[in-house]
Protein 1
Amino acid sequence: MAQGGGGIAAERANPSGEDRISVLPDDALVLILLHLDTAAAVRTSVLSRRWRRVWTLLPELRFDFSPEPHPVASALAVHEAALRFLDVGALDAAPESVAAWLPVAANRLSGRLNFENRAPPGRNGDGEEDGERGAFELPCFKSATTVSLDLGFLRLAVPAAGVFAQLTELRLVRVRICGPCKLGDAVSSPRCPCLQRLTVHQTQGLDNITIRSESLLRVDLNAVSGLQQFNVVAPALKELTVRHCFFRSRTQPIADISAPQMGVARVDRRGFSSKS
Amino acid sequence: MAAPESGDGNNGAARMVTLISSDNTRFEVEAAAASLSQTLQLTILDGGGGGGDGIPLPNVDSATLSKVLEYCIKHAPAAANGGAPNATAVDRAELERFDNEFVNIDQSVLYSLIMAAHNLEIEGLQSLVAKKVADMIKGKSPMEIRRTLGFPDPTPEEQAEMNAHMLEYGWAYE
């Protein structure tokens, strides 16, 4: 053992017995780890047997932007507790690897998910090589309240079934929706009974969005390219923003909006034919 | 403007309660300060702790309790304002200065405080002391953390276990 760490050596506890911090209850140790980033918290598991599983009780996991293979997959395989917050940053994630951990998170999460994938410049969804990359399916978040996915133009399939029972806020950014478009169905009341806020930005592959929701308060669509038809029946809707959505439409796009409570509507009317 | 020490000025004397440490020292303190403890709050709301009775705290010694109460007395006015939406920047800066100074303490005292804050459920103090330990851990290797936190040196067997564990958790070390 190295000599000369004066202050440290002076603080060293009884060399024979248990160190004093390790006798603290799990809850107190978890509070300490909550102030660390998740990787640092995980590293405390090496300290001793007492500390091995403390980090697996953390209710919040945060991962800095990381290349593949992403640590979130390994972490969720060991982590045990219910999650109230999961924050994941990825650098050019592969769809298969997201598909490996996202459903696990969906099962475990009772609060917020924030996933941001940074794609390399140029992969903006228009490139040919992107077409060869696979897609993954949006898992059903049964108890999450907020889901924010900034996918860096990964391809996402929206499932035809499954109820997002607690979801109040859904945010999709830089997503390429593939397959038959089920988004409108998925966010409508039968499958999203609590959804209050829907945000869709810089997204492709959505040509038709039809939403019937009792709960929606705010809808914000920005740069949803190729949108042909947008129908909303939302009696509680207060705020609707639709911008830069109809640039690439070859035919006259159609919007039909029924929202008697609406206070604020910011609709970019370029090429917009409203039936209402 | 109004002096900060006006707590017992206008409405007559503030209600006091007595807390008794494990070594039988009695501490008389304003009910509002003691009520920062979720554990004590219920007893105090029920009218306990007044008069000659006192609330025994068999898990907290007098040195630790004195320190805990120092925190509670300082933070009680802001807590009474419901997180003090009208607190001035000066007030907040003063509390922050107090907090920083407050946790500048010996490790053994720090651990006693963590235990007491945990048992008494004083949320602000729990977070403050937890953050202090987290700051001691940040940026250190496992061996440095062990030394900082006063772990005994690992036995060869423990060392082997640590090495194997680090291999298994390689993803956390990148």
Protein 2
Amino acid sequence: MLKAIWDNLKGLYSLLVGMSITGRYLLSPVETIHYPRKVVDDAILTSFRGPIRLTLGKKNPQETRCVSCQMCVKACPGGCLTVTKGDTKAPITWLYDFSYCCLCGACVETCPAGALEFSHKVYWVTLTREELIMDLLKDLKTRTAGPNPNPSSNPSPASPQPSSVPKDAPKASPAAPANPVASQTADQKADQKADQKAGPVASPNGHPEGAKAAPKDPGASPNGHPEGAPAALKEPGV
Amino acid sequence: MAAPEKLLEPKEPQAQSWVEPPLINLKPINWFFDVNRAMSLWPITFGLACCAIEMMSASMSRFDIARFGAEVFRPSARQADLMMVTGTVTRKMAPVVVRLYEQMPAPKYVMACGNCAISGGPFKFEGQYGVVEGVDRLLPVDVYVPGCPPRPEAILEGVFKIQELITGRRFWPEPREIGA
Amino acid sequence: MFLSLAVFVQIIVAVLLIIGLMVANAVAMVYMERKVAGFIQRRPGPYEVGPRGTLQAVCDSMKLLAKQIYRPGNADLILYYLAPILAFFPVLLLFLPIPFGPYLTPLPVNDGVVLILAFAGLGVLSNLLAGWGSSNKYSLLGAARAVAQTVAYEIPMILALLAVVLLSGSMDLKSITEQQGQWPWEWNVVLQPLAFFIYLISLVAETNRAPFDLPEAESELTAGFHTEYSGMGFALFFLSEYANMLLVSFVAAVFFLGGYRGPIADGFWWLFIKAYLLMFFMVWIRWTFPRVRFDQLLNLNWRWLLPLGLLNLWLTAIVTKLLV
């Protein structure tokens, strides 16, 4: 009986200890990183594995180092990659479906030419599933072409969007209104810009009516396509 | 098909939902209620697999989803608005997912977090029988957050995207560039 | 007539003001709870909606207002819709005998204690109706637990309050307040610490707050007796839970902490300060302790609080009537 009382008193004391711990936390500063206004350290973000991208060529930065050996295609456990060889060693199609990727890095490690690396595309959010299929050759060209190349930028989604060309001023998009709140930074190559321009209206596509450009079918795929001859890459929105 | 053959054009999702317009359909009132709905999205505790850890991490101290009103994770589907499908949807779990979605009262929103919820992810291969290849075969999905798993900031961006779909504008500034 | 016109008007005005108080209290409490929960977990809580998150509760209530209303197919038609209303309105009645200030008692009756204790039981009725009327096994389990818990913990509450009544010699809340002094060492908590402690525990248990929140436990019962309520029904349960918390905090402040009496000037502000300090304490407890198992909860009541309450009452009676 007395032991029960003593145990209960000890229990009450432990309750007070617990409350003092939470009381101490109550008075200590918060450790939240207020996300859109502040971000975590770059050291963490640059070690984050985002979708893969092609590395720059050694001689010509606009050309890839890939030799279409298909080692990455075989190594990928999710079957995300499609590489088509052209007449020379260089690939003519390089498609990557990010929604099947598990970021294992098998492709990056296996590539004998060192043509692949991880990007750091951290804040990517899309409205459709088809936007996640990326054309990495086109992305390489857009990263390195033009007066302000930014080869370390993240790959942008390649499906027809009015503003997936980050170089041009986004005013070219006919019906997607400019984001009223976003502070338009000078460097427009970030992928999240491209996503925001997808149109704020609640339509699954978020595209203006006219911007359904021709499907990017630059070359003959392994199965053969009705389109036959490779069509020139068309800039969307043009 | 796992290996992409060509780039696909975005199309309408297969499952659709439709909500009746309200009886009093005036624009300012709709806008007022839309802003309130966007600022107080209550998620349902629906973590299925590893991406659920990222969802929990987004509701913890470092990246606090409570700042935007989405702190109250309700366990009951009747009191929730947002279903974050985080993780692999297996065949066994699929009827439960649909039942919970149907139990949520309108207006409701679905966010597919992680590659498994978007398309079956790395578990899709020829002849597999266990995994539903993408939760958008079962429910209409509003926002897709890719990654394996996505960072908690990406989940926050998904919530911002849903807020943008509801109200028509994004209220929070863009994050700064990585490395800038 | 039974009531003069002045008293009638006074009651009507008081009821309207109390409804306003309950709504304002719910808004303030939602904000306080989320912020305190946030700071205990070292995060800021609601921050972006309105300046420092102050409009968050308003957004929540507007959103709940605009949700779809439906009831499950098998749910009892009358009971399902009656339960939230029944949760909300009796609490109004309980606010009436409380002396808010020296001349601010909405309904000056001379047995306010009996009024409060008698009508506190109506709250459990609403839980039961919600649980039964939802035709959902989780709700029914939640309601059964709620009934057992609330009925059980009313008894130590009555015993603790009775000890104070014995001490003060009257059941009128105003005279209990008047008999306590201005300074904290003259309040009843000094004379009856055990009763205060028992009342604190019953307070947390009566309002189904953690660590005694089994009826609405999240990980066990998926929201317990209000599982099937969406939108406005849920908002009414929420509102009534916070109103109940405010009510029992007011009663604790009146009985043990000196009511509206305070060091510098007597007035209603002291009552509010004390009640909100007690509610802050309840929120603090919620985010500190894990949930108590159901048999531990009832054991606590029947094996510890009830004998202690009786002992306290007996000692008080002896000391007051025989020795003094």
